[in-house]
Amino acid sequence: MSDIINLDILIELLLGIALSTAAGFRVFVPLLVLSAATVVGHLNLPTDFDWIETPQALIVFGAACLLEIAGYYIPWFDHLLDTVATPAAFIAGTVLTASVSPQLNPIIQWTLAVVAGGGTAGLTKGVMNLLRVGSSATSGGLTNPILATIELAIAAVLSVLAITVPLIAGISVIVLLVLAVLRIRKFFSQSDRSRQVNQT
């Protein structure tokens, strides 16, 4: 019995991490997908999060999602949107993870939500912000719409996968995030070495 409960908690946590990662790409896409999944009865959230299960929330998330998507296709406005979306992604990741972890003690639930959910969303958003800055620097912002389309596609696919196959989605996300962090660390360490060589 306890093994089943532990497996359920693991799946809930992986579901939260996968949705939080999607929030790092687009804040409102995973919220929209989660709300749609609850409205049709695929998921049942804790009482504290009943507001996500309402048709009104679905409409609000849908409208916010459309505005966010459109904003990333406006040149240079996408950078302004990033400054707002970064803390919003952290908050969304925290809420998403807390909402799908009903079996945990509230203190553990919210601690994991902040660390795993908010942290994952913030890390993903930070990586994408770096990519957008690099894209703007190398192309003058011309390739940013392509990046925005890729981000949107990843957010949508990842959100749907998180709801349908949370175990696979969560593990895949963790592996990809670890690889991304290692890649970024390698890039910055090589940059530091090049700078030191140039200075000597």
Key phrases:
200 residues; mainly alpha; 0% strand
Total count of domains: 1
Overall shape? globular
Distance between the termini: 64 Å
The low-pLDDT segments are: none
Portion in helices: over 70%
Reported for the largest beta sheet, the result is: none
Structural class: mainly alpha
SSE blueprint and pairings:
Blueprint lengths: L1 H24 L2 H12 L15 H17 L5 H23 L6 H34 L4 H21 L1 H34 L1
Describe it:
The chain has 200 residues and is mainly alpha-helical. It contains 7 helices and no strands. Helix 1 (2-25) packs across helix 2 (28-39). 36% of the residues are buried.
Could you write a compact summary of the structure shown?
The chain has 200 residues and is mostly helical.
